[in-house]
Amino acid sequence: MSDVRRCTVCGRPLRDPASRARGTGPVCARKLRKMSRRARRQLLPVDDVPTGPYL
Questions:
Q1: CA torsion, points 46, 48, 54, 55, in degrees to nearest 10?
Q2: How far is CA 53 from CA 14, 44, 48, in A?
Q3: CA-only gyration radius of the chain, Å
Q4: Using an 8 Å Cβ cutoff, are 6 and 12 in contact?
Q5: Closest CA to 10 of 32, 34, 37
Q6: Which among 5, 18, 43, 52 counts the fewest CB atoms within 10 Å?
Q7: In this predicted model, which residue has the larger pLDDT, 49 or 40?
Q8: pLDDT per residue as tens digits for the range 8-45
Q9: What is the pLDDT of residue 45?
């Protein structure tokens, strides 16, 4: 288990043991989860991937 002292995203000091183990503070972790959900929504299902002579 890693014991990071500063947030790997913004560089602020981490005080909470769970944040240190995660490597990000609570605000940055929330932002990363939100970005991850948004990226998953934008992915196309495999059946919807266009195919054709130009690909």
A1: -10
A2: 52, 20, 16
A3: 18
A4: yes
A5: 32
A6: 52
A7: 40
A8: 999 999 999 999 999 999 999 999 888 887 777 776 56
A9: 60
Cα–Cα distance, 21 to 39 (Å, whole number) = 25
Q: How many CA atoms lie within 13 A of 1 on its CB side?
A: 7
Instruction: Confirm if 55 and 38 have CB atoms less than 8 A apart.
Output: no
| Structure token digits, residue 39 | 């990226």
Q: What is the pLDDT of residue 1?
A: 46
Question: Does pTM top 0.70 for this prediction?
Answer: no
Distance (Å, whole) CA 5 – CA 51? 48
Q: How many whole angstroms separate alpha carbon 9 and alpha carbon 14?
A: 11
First to last CA, the chain: 44
Residue found under tokens 């919807």: 48
